[in-house]
Amino acid sequence: MIRQSTSPIIVLIGRLVSPFIQVFGLYVIFHGHYGPGGGFQGGAILAASLLLIRLCLDSETAQLQFRQALGTPVGILGSLAFAGIGLMTLLLGGEFLDYAFLPFGGMKPAEIRAMGILLVELGIGVAVMATLVAIFDDLIGLEDHG
Amino acid sequence: MMGLWDLIAVLMIGAGAFFMLVASIGIIRLPDFYTRVHAMGKGDTLGIMLILLGLCVYEGFSLSSAKLLIALFFVGLTNPVATHALVGAALRFGLKPMVKREFRKEDANDTLGS
Fold first, then answer.
1. Mind listing the pLDDT tens digit for each residue in B45-78?
2. Of A12, A92, A140, A112, which Cα lies nearest the Cα of B81?
3. SS3 for A68-81, per residue?
């Protein structure tokens, strides 16, 4: 149970900065092929924005954004996206995470590989974000408010 | 060949490094939690902003310089707020600030004893 911060400065700046952190996290995930970054780092930044709202506002308001009960299922979904793409290439005749065998018609092989890497990075990012938020919720003993 | 803009950039980065050095010395040398946070909140913010502004001037008008300006804006916005949150949490936890009278008494005892 977290009470809302008594200082309006903290509440206001937390609410102001959190969307920009989310945009930066998505940028880090989607820009991971070309520069520093990737799924894990972007997911950690996304989790930081969610945790900022959880620390600044009270626990009922924070769960309008990301519910406590969603933490574990979304983490499992992200892991399944990673493992599913790897196993799909395995079933379609390649090796594990061999992106060239993904069934995307009408694309050049390089584009298919880029798209496969992007999907895997998205899965990793979602899994890391949900898992970090779930760890935080378990540590402070947050109850689920629907 | 150093142009005028390079000179301005070097001056800004040097000033930023100086302010960060002052803030670091303040964190080590000041006697109290609140005074240390005071040194960190002001000196570090000004130092980082000056260094980023100097790098921005050195880079010129480009995409990297726009990213540096955005980073500068958010550092200037969030660093004082983080200091505010830290001090507020310490005050609510019950940490007493060191008052001037106590400090002077201990100081006098130290000088008398030695």
1. 999 999 999 999 998 889 999 999 999 999 999 9
2. A12
3. HHHHHHHHHHHHHH
Q: Which residues in A lie closer than 8 A to residue B77 (C-beta atoms)? A: 13, 16-17
Domain count, chain A: 1
Cβ contact (<8 Å) for B81 and A20? no
Containing structural domain, residue A122: 8-140
Q: How many domains does chain B have?
A: 1
Q: Are B44 and B16 in contact (CB under 8 A)?
A: no
Q: Residue B110 is inside which H or E element, if any?
A: helix B100-113
- Structural domain for B107, as ranges: 4-113
A10 contact B CB<8A: yes
User: d(Cα A14, Cα A16) in Å, to the nearest integer?
Assistant: 5
Buried b (16+ CB within 10 A) or exposed e, A8-40: eebbebbeebbeebbebbeebbeebeeeebbbb
* A26 part of a folded domain: yes
Q: Check: CB of residue A66 under 8 Å from CB of residue A128.
A: no
Per-residue pLDDT of A3-47, as tens digits, reads 777 788 999 999 999 999 999 999 999 988 777 888 899 999 999
How far apart are the CA of B75 and the nearest CA of chain A, in angstroms?
Answer: 11
Listing DSSP states for B21-71 in one string gives HHHHHHHHH-SSHHHHHHHIIIIIHHHHHHHHHHHHHHH-SSHHHHHHHHH
Q: Measure the CA–CA gap between A49 and A54, rounded to whole angstroms.
A: 9
* pTM, full prediction: 0.81
Res B109: pLDDT: 56
CB contact (8 A) between residue A10 and residue B81:
yes
